[in-house]
Amino acid sequence: MKTTADKLKKQKMQRYTRKDFERDFPTDDACLEWLKDYLYPNGIFCQTCERLTKHHKMASRKSYSCDYCGHHVHPTADTIYHKSSTPLRQWFLAIYIMASTRCGISAKQLERELGVTYKTAWRMFKQIRSMLTDENAAPLSGKVEVDETYVGGKPRHKDSKNMRGRGYKKNKSCVVGAVERGGRVVTLVTENAQGRVLMPFIRENVREESHIFTDEWPAYWAVRYNGFYHSTVQHAKKIYVRGDAHTNSVEGFWMLVKSGIRGVYHGVSPKYLQTYLNEYSFRYNRRNDVTPMFRSFLTQVQKATSD
Fold this sequence. Notes:
Layout: H1 4-9, H2 18-24, H3 28-39, E1 44-46, E2 51-53, E3 55-57, E4 64-66, E5 72-73, H4 88-99, H5 107-114, H6 118-130, E6 143-152, E7 172-180, E8 185-190, H7 195-205, E9 211-215, E10 229-233, H8 248-265, H9 273-285, H10 293-306
Parallel strand pairs: 6-9, 9-10
Antiparallel strand pairs: 1-2, 3-4, 4-5, 6-7, 7-8
């Protein structure tokens, strides 16, 4: 049972509205200024002068020039904005729109919101999503739920009503996920749900001696022999909770992913499915943050390109 102190510790995410965005990023120059301040929080180090120097914004270019030697610094270099003919503020607005929804937004909707072509909207949509990864995050630990599922379209034949579960995978992509209770989620698109595929995923993303909860799928039998505690629930017998053993957290995440893909995108190509999962994972992993989701998206996009 949660105490009053525990409830006080949990804070809600700060609101960040369209009005806030218009105030903070009214022009391309304001966006470039944010980018410059993010990359050079202590000031710009001039490679020619070999010291921190004052720089001024160039009127006709996306760059800053040293006041002493004239050396140019381009904040958009090596980012998704580099050499893009799309205004920088349009990029920031696209990030805001994508961050402002819980279940995602389609490229077609982004096209309507930004007033750009569908080709441009799709390119922005894909590049922003490709940055939403947590590659350097620590492994999951404690109580971790692991489950696999299939994402994709339904087979069109008369026996489709009788096909459910792991056998119901024609035209679908297999994905595996691990959720730390009260913490993060990690997902991966895999070729199948066999032990030789699932166990490397678990070993890579879950700390040893963690307590792993799964269903009775035979591929998980090797979990206890790889340095983990292991508890199962028998879904085939309609047993979904057995004491502390359940996979409700990871299954709740799958429900969020599938309802979003079905309701917003209607279908996702296997080629890009991992990037969609990364976006859903990114939101899920920051569900308890105080920082507005837009700020998290914006800094992550820049951090990923800088790395």
